[in-house]
Amino acid sequence: MSKFSRIACSIAAASLALGLSACGSSDGTSATDSGSPLLQHIEEGNVTLGVKFDQPGLGLRQPDGSMSGLEVDISTYVVNHIAQANGWDEPTISWREGPAAQRETLIQNAEVDMMTATYSINKSRTESVNFGGPYLLTHQALLVQESNSDIKGLEDLDGKILCSTAGSAPAQRVKDQMPGVQLQEYDTNSSCIEALRQGNIDAITTDATIIGGYAAQSPGTFKVIPLEKDGAPFAEEYYGIGLKKGDEDSTSAINAALQAMYDDGSFDKFVQENLDGVEGVYQATPGDLSFLEK
Known about the structure:
Elements: H1 3-14, H2 37-44, E1 46-51, E2 54-55, E3 59-61, E4 67-68, H3 70-85, E5 92-97, H4 103-108, E6 114-115, H5 123-126, E7 130-145, E8 161-165, H6 169-177, E9 182-186, H7 189-197, E10 203-207, H8 208-217, E11 222-226, E12 228-229, E13 232-233, E14 236-243, H9 248-263, H10 266-275, E15 281-282
Parallel strand pairs: 1-5, 1-6, 8-9, 8-10
Antiparallel strand pairs: 2-3, 3-4, 7-10, 7-11, 7-14, 7-15, 12-13
Helix pairs in contact: 3-9
């Protein structure tokens, strides 16, 4: 019987007087719900992971149904590491699309076991879900045509046409700093990409991870320009892995897996393979959420 099963069975045995059911057979092939559904589902051999389906370099569903991207690789690494650390077989993974507006709902409704979908950690979100990580620190950046020599940073955007998705915080940050910027908003990043390709806008702004994925998808067409203000990166975003609120056992297991991913070089390998080593993507400190107090 696995360590996780023994713990779960002990809890169940202690609860029999309250009418709760016991768990697991003597061979340890199953585990009860001990408040850690992610661990339970990994042990049982089937896990559902949320990622983006339309984000090149991060989470992209291919025409044949296969998945690719940095966050696909990180999610796979995490669940497989947890399985190996506990002596379980690597689980079968089912992928579920995680649109930004639905991430908390999918977690709370137990439609996914964990969510890795350009999921920035902030105070408001921590009220609804637990976060493993952060596994990545990124900054806001610009994407311009490869041939563009006019835009080298924030100060060069005055009078330029800047594209971002509707209601985008990154675009508004730039507008606040450079009132002369003309904002062009579209519903999707892909629409901004096409406008940039056609020369209808001058630049796109969002997280370096996101635009780095588009740049890697079209080598020689676009380039990424880091944004700085007063010599420091312009805006920081810490990406985390969302999971059921209060599931501390799974959160700790995720953080241990992320640290192992850093230590064995897998993170750097994933970034290079998926984002072509784009600037503005850095390791973070799994389990350290002190940045929320800044």
